[in-house]
Target: MerC domain-containing protein
Amino acid sequence: MSTILPSAASRPSLRRRLDQVGIGLAGLCALHCIATLVVVSALGLGGHFLLDENIHRVGLLLALLVAAIAIGWGALRHRRVVPFGVAAAGLGFMTLALVVPHGMNEFSLTLVGVGLVSVAHLLNLRAAH
Model:
């Protein structure tokens, strides 16, 4: 019995999947920020875990790796620098958020950063078509 596999042209490429993972990571980061603000501020719970610096460092490292591979690879293929520039700006905001104290400034910088990184991944996906 043979199975029909999709052709190579119809399967999502690794770069495309990495862009999708990047968008998902950005969404999880934004959700983490909002949940932290609500849970810690309103209920006073989970601060020891949700505000842990290692979560932010690991998140930034994952964002850097995924963006470097997906958007860097995309830029080499489609020769458009806008996704790369938008991603660099977003990652810069996210990095800046690590050096400010926890609070609204960190929250705002992080959300702007993950928003820009998501837009960069979307631009990269569009440029590949």
